[in-house]
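Contributing new records

If you add data, match the layout below exactly. Sequence lines come first and carry their own label; structure lines follow with theirs. Keep one chain per record. Anything else will be rejected by the validation script.
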Amino acid sequence: MRAEEETQMPGGAAGTEQAGAPAKKDTGVRAYATALFEIARAEDVVVRVNEDLEKVVSTLAGHMKLKEILGDAGFPAAKKHEILREIFAGALSPVTLNGLIMLVDAGRDGEIAEVAAAYTEIAESGTGQIIAKVTTAVPLTDELRAELSAKLAGMAGRDVAIQEKVDPSVLGGVVVEMGGRVLDGSVRTRLAEMKERLVQPAPGAPKEGEK
């Protein structure tokens, strides 16, 4: 597969790095993040891969044993492949899963969080869009998605790619993280009308207190 061939490209460069050299290590992380971004862009899954990587980082943070296994250079790579496929098959895009396998084969599976952070930065720079992580109490309709995208683009001064997540526990109907910051009260005020539309009952639904 072409994607698999491309993911091997940074491997040679990584092998020339000297251990314990922070600058070179950072360059290596960015090389793998860049390779992953180029494949994601070709497959039109840039935002999906960003979401996937965040999911992986969150999973590792909650499962220290898995994190230790991936960070153990002495643990067989083939077994790591099996573990990753067993845990994430169906939950991640093929591009992301292949990217994780690439990191294992390169001995950089202990740097997934760093690659994820670099990927977001490279994706935003490479697409000219800022990734806005939007969590809503209910799924966005096409109309609300377009309206929200336009509002956020106006605030950011650049195009916005929306990364969606549904969480019924979200208070106020919508939470937006953009540029590494959760939008403050003044911005939320500007989204007040949209919030009301997100939390209001569907047409024909009984009002609170009605039977």
